[in-house]
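Notes to self after the Tuesday call (sharing in case useful).
The group wants a holo model before anyone commits to mutagenesis around the pocket. I volunteered. Ligand is aspartic acid. Logging inputs and output together so the record is complete.
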Amino acid sequence: MPMDNEPNPEPQPAPPTPPSLSWLTRWNRIPLYTRIVVAMILGIVVGLVLGERAIMFALPSEIILRLLGALAPPLILVAVAHVMITTDIPGRKAARLAWLLVLNTTVAVVIGLTVANVMSPGTWSKLDAPAEENVEEKGEGAGQKTPLEVLVENVPHSIIGPLGDQQNIIGVILIAVAFGIAMRGVKDRPVATVTDLVEIAYQTLLTVLHWIIQLVPIGVFCIVAKVVGTEGFEPFKAMAAFVLAVLVALALQATWYLVRIRLFSWPRPWYVLVGVRDALVMAFSTASSTATMPVTYACLKDNVKLREQSASLGSLVGANFNNDGTALYEAMAALFVAQLLGQDLSFVQQLMVVFTAIIASVGAAGIPEAGLVTMTLVFNAVGLPPQYIILLFTVDWFLDRCRTTINVLGDVNVSCLLDGRTQASAT
Ligand code: ASP
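Result:
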């Protein structure tokens, strides 16, 4: 081997040109929100061209929804277990922290439902209740199923379900392949403790979730093509009203946080906002409260000058558990879709929405679009057709950023309140 400092008489072969990237790799390198916007535009064009025939795009979006729904329960299970195992909360603070989390999330859901009831964004346009496109319910007499229909039928509703069903071997294989590939990334990690096990389960689920989220632009394309083709632009009027209503509700939630900071902690709200502005901007630009977590912690400790323990409890536990923006959004989305379909949710059903939205927000991972996964639980709990979650994908790339910013502001709020009314004396 020639040494670096020796002259090299041999002409060196030209370095190999890097293999050109496949179109898929290039596509996946584009930021998700850009892909979603492109998918929307394509969907509009294809919907306009195909008209009623665009109904054929209903099926692919059902596959994506089915996958999201299948992942929701295990994600919630592992996410909550993960927080319980990994966070060390000093006894006296634990009760106060729990109280603040429950209070903030409940207020968020109540604000969301109130704004949705008052503004009624779903009544800005009318949609027919979806015809049951569920291929499983077509029954034997429905004639020959297309291969795509057979595939949809075998996409599992849950991760455990197919294991007890001899008929659904394709579902078992799909799960085995997905998790097998996902676990290749963690196969060399030692499992010495239960924490390691939960950690690995969590990482594996997040990897699979990440793949499913990559399918979201396809889902957006299909639903937009189908809606534009079969119903025109009418439903999008209501979507615009929904975006507005969510923004109003999130602004009210931010006001709640700032008032509480003013009344029950030592730093002044404006000073807090200036101190954590980097975290807020990062939350908006990444749509991930988990990715923002270290910045939130540093801002609270170094800029706002909270005690280390308050900063870490609020930002670290909060980033996992405290997703008020997500809870507010999920509750509003359920009410919005009910309004869109002309269905009234009774008081008891709205209570059910409050309850499931709180649980679902706890289980939502702090990554982009995670709220859409757990939203299937809220919809199922009150019997709303989950197909409409796909419609929300069209605006979610923007609303996700907004609710993530509120999720992070919620963590900031909890930290300030834990820090109390007196500033730590400078050392
Ligand atoms: N993106 C949000 C977060 O990171 C979660 C969600 O989708 O609601 O906090």
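Two things stood out.
DSSP finds 17 helices and no strands in the chain.
The chain has one domain: 32-124+156-419.
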